Each structure stands twice: as C-alpha cells, then as structure tokens.
Amino acid sequence: MTRLIVAAGGGGDAVAAAMLHAALYGGEEPAVILTYAWDRLVVDPVPGPRSTSDFEGLAPLTSAVRTVPASARPVAPTRSTLPRLAAELPHTFALLDPQRGVEGVTRQLEEVVRQLEPESIDLLDVGGDILAQGGEPTLKSPLADALTLAAACQVNASVRLLVAGPGLDGELPPDALRPLLGPVVHTFTATDVEPVSSVLEWHPSEVAAMLAATARGVRGSCEVRDAGPAVALTDEGPRVHAVDLDEAVNRNRLARAIMTTAALDEVEAYAREICGISEIDHEREKAARLSEQPPVEIDADVVSAQLDRFEAEARRRGVTHTTFRRLTEALNLPGSQREALRRLVIDSRPEQYEPPLWRVTATPE
After folding, report:
1. Domain that holds residue 310
2. How much is the pTM?
3. Quick one: 183 and 307 in the same domain?
4. What is the percent of the chain with per-residue pLDDT over 70, rounded to a whole number?
5. Tell me: the pLDDT tens digits for 246-265?
6. Could you give the CA distance from residue 160 to residue 162 in angstroms, rounded to a whole number?
7. DSSP 8-state code for residue 27
8. Are 36 and 166 in the same domain?
C-alpha cells in the first residue's frame, strides 16, 4: 500500500510531508514524496528550482520522473538538501522538475500515479499561500504552489489538498485563511515530530521549524527572514486542514492562468503579471548582492555582542522567538555560516534553544 504525498512548494513542505505520513499512516510502508529541489539561497547559491540535469546519480521511477537517493549528488555549484533527507528518512523522494511548466509537472504526476497506483494522494502546503488570489501585498512566493496546484487539478485521480500550519509562512494572515479552510484532519503533536527530529537539527526551512515547534507546544511570536512581520505561534499552528481542491484553483488566479504553460519562463512571466513578483527574480537579485559579500570569519565575542543587541531590539518588537535563518541574516553573516552560527549560540546559551527555534528571552514568558 503506497501513499503519495506531493510537497506543494518543496523545501519545508517535504519535511512536513514526512510528519504527515507519520501522523496519518505511520503503521504503513514509507511514502513516496514528490517535491521540488528548491532550497533557496540559504543552501543553494543558484537561484530557482533544480532540474534533473542538476543532479548526478538519480534513479528512474518513470520515464519522466527520477528519485533522489542518498547517493545522489547535485552538480556544482548547485546544492540540495534532498540527498540528505533521503539518507535520514525512510521515504522515497521523487523530483518534480518544473522546467517544462505545468504541462511537464502534470505529466510527471500522471506517470507516478499510473506507476504506483497509490492508496491516496495528498497535496500538502504548509502556511496556506497556495490559497492566495495573487494580489495580496504580503505574498512572497506564489509560483511554486500555483504551479503544483495547476498540475494537480488536471491529474485523472482523486487528490486531497491539505493545508498545515495556516499562516506560518507569513504570507497570508490567519484571519484571511480561516474562512477558506475545511475540517481539521489532524493536529500535529510532539510525537508526530519525532520521526523528523534529527532533520530539524540541520534543515534550513523556517516554516517546517515553526510547524514542529507549535506541535511541541511552543507559543509566542517568531521573527523570520527579511525582517517581515513576526509569525504568531498559536494553537492553530499544528493543525492540518482539508481544503476543496477546485475552490483553491478557482481562487488562485496564477494557477488558472498557467494551466497550459510548457516552460518555467512562461510561469514566471504570468507570476510577474498577476502577482507583481516572481520569487526567482527575488533570488536572482539577492544572489547578486551576496556574490559581492566578502567572506566572514565568525568571532565568538563579536557574535555574543551582536546577539545581545538583536535580542534586546526583538524583545522591544514583542518577539519571543526567531529562526536560525533570521539570526544569520540579522548578524550580517552569509547563509553558508548558518550552521556554524547555530552551533556557536546553542553551545554558549543552551537554555535559549527551544528546538528547532531560538528563544530571544532567557526564560519563557
């Protein structure tokens, strides 16, 4: 009995897919998780999602779909977290390649469904931006979710759309999402997080970290990358809602517009036109800035002083927690230094580590 889980946006959605499988289907064989290899610049210095040509050692699943085993390697200078995920988790991670637009992704989904004949197909989005209409001012990453949604609705199979952690991605406010959500399918608990606990120690996804933290009972206000509005960590955070797939497509103007696209460039053009942004453009601009940033050596004393200042300012903003991705950015370090910074601050102030987040106060409020 095979369960197919499609990680709508790649990255943290793939980690959440493993949590979902543990929660809903834990006694069964491992899942097949279809996901983009799209880790953003905190891991991968090359903007945009990776394609099959960016890896060595992929294994065939169908004529159009390849799996990413632990032995696979991204071709330099690209990088990916998928081989390490495959090494640490029992699931099969299969690569969604968006280079041929929605037509290509639809073909990949259809082939996997025909090959596996899965018992169920879940399309999982953490945060809920898959329900965006397209013009929301807080929307930052509409492209990946819209592309997957547009493909999923064209597959000749029953696909269940699930939204976990409504609002945790900081793109659509929880108040706007609540009327759009269907029944609660599951509420994640600390037990559901255990299968991915080792992954959360190194994986850079902020939304996966906040989803796991809320499942473990963490509550407060978490500041994320780019100093956007703090994300509320509430009792809604660990919930997984079913959402009507057709209603989601009817809301998502970008998904409807790109149904017949045959290239990622076309999808990007529609994203710029309808949403005013393409997250790949944002990555291109950021990558250009980072390429001019000189190498930085981490000095423990300097980091300690910078951390004190950041925490004092964060507390004044009403923030209780932050991600290590945000800490790296706030301390003006390149993304490649995230893990070294994480080890340094946990070793020096272990009482403030509330896995997988950093608490900006020494004692819980």
Report:
1. 300-359
2. 0.96
3. no
4. 98
5. 999 999 999 999 999 999 99
6. 6
7. T
8. yes
